[in-house]
Amino acid sequence: MLRNGLRQLRHGFNRPFMVMFETTLHCNMKCGYCAIWQNQQPEERAVRERVFARMDEAAAFGVFAWSFSGGEPLMNPNVPDYIEWAARLGFYTSMPTNGLALKKYAGACVKLDQLEVSIDTLDREKFAKRRGIDGLPTILAALDHIKGALEHNIIQINAAVDLENLEDLPALAAYCEERGFLLHTEAVHNVVRTTWKTEDVEMRREELDRVAAFVLELRRAHKCVRFYTDYYKFYRDDGFNEKFPCRSASHLVNMRPDGSIQFPCAFVSLHRGAPEMSLREIYDSPEVRKIVEQSPRMWDFCKGCKIGCPYEVSAYRNSPLTAVRSALDFLRLG
Q1: Which CATH class is domain 2-333?
Q2: What is the pTM assigned to this prediction?
Q3: Phi and psi dihedrals of 93, rounded to 5?
Q4: Distance from C-alpha of 13 to C-alpha of 80, rounded to nearest angstrom
């Protein structure tokens, strides 16, 4: 990481910081606020050697972090091997998972720097209604197994929050505090892809203010609660705009299940670098250089987006002060 930090410094921090690898766009849950399960199609997944090569390329390129994303990442059976490879290369690794297959792959998952498990409520009936599957006992049992039997790094519970589950958060915070987990809350928002059918789940300002006030009070009572004030402000101010543009094209490597690199982001495709091309070849190509040059001025589909991963890399690039505050929020509990 120090070596990559020096590489980034030499290039004026104008290279990608992180890879978001969508290991699959399939999911085995049916969350009411997520459209991915409603739009599942056959997909081509990269062979293992292509993914290993991508990791080697990213390490040489100066990338700090590797995030395994989805869909549900553990529906790709090669993900445990990918985690092992990324850990050996020294990336800061993270993965959000719904936890249904967590116990099966626990030995690999605990090698992540940050394992993120999605739980919105400890009310089994409400969980099943929100997630479309009665999976809470399976997920909690997997977490108990890890806690009791395996050495692990950071375990973070990710709670997608709206007014429906707001009152369930204190019990979830107490659960996390008792077990030494973190609780990360993120307001429900739209995730729009150009070819998807989606429903509008975006929260309005009054609703968001209620959520923010509630979570801030919760953080005062429970030190395990993570709350990113700047991100909530970004959400409330209607997301990406010309004063705070998205930097996904230049600072986030958006890797598809087949190993191709999509621009400008994981959710909208203007161009894809082919799986067999190296990262250096992709980023040096005229098509990508043009997209990177255009991206700060933003396209219409960028305006109003509130998705977290593009926000993180954009915050670090757009505003040093925001980057420092976000890092302090992260390190306070990390």
Answers
A1: alpha beta
A2: 0.91
A3: -110, 145
A4: 31
* The 225-226 sheet, strands edge to edge: 225-226, 182-187, 154-161, 114-118, 92-97, 65-69, 18-22, 252-255, 261-264, 269-273
**Which ranges of the chain does DSSP label H, i.e. alpha helix?**
2-10, 48-61, 79-89, 106-109, 124-131, 136-149, 169-179, 205-221, 229-236, 248-251, 279-284, 286-294, 308-318, 320-333
Give burial (CB, 10 Å; 0-12/13-18/19+) of 149: exposed
**pLDDT tens-digit profile of 93-121?**
999 999 999 999 999 999 999 999 999 99
Signed CA dihedral, 164, 170, 172, 173: sign only? positive
Asked if 118 contacts 74 with a C-beta cutoff of 8 angstroms, the reply is: no
pLDDT at position 82: 98
Q: Is 49 exposed, middle or buried (0-12, 13-18, 19+ CB in 10 A)?
A: exposed
Asked if 165 contacts 121 with a C-beta cutoff of 8 angstroms, the reply is yes
Euclidean distance between CA atoms 327 and 334, whole angstroms: 10
Highest mean pLDDT among 20-34, 74-88, 201-215: 74-88
Answer whether 224's CB lies under 8 Å from 177's CB: yes
**Model confidence over 156-167: pLDDT tens digits?**
999 999 999 999
CB 299: neighbour CB atoms within 10 A? 13
Q: What angle do CA 251, 255, 260 make, to 5 degrees?
A: 120
User: What are the residue ranges spanned by the domains of the chain?
Assistant: 2-333
Helix (H, G, I), strand (E, B) or coil at 176: helix
β-pairing verdict for 269-273 and 261-264: antiparallel
Q: Are strands 182-187 and 92-97 parallel, antiparallel or unpaired?
A: unpaired
**Number of Cβ atoms within 10 Å of the Cβ of 219:** 17
- Distance, in Å, from the CA atom of 35 to the CA atom of 197, rounded to the nearest integer, reads 7
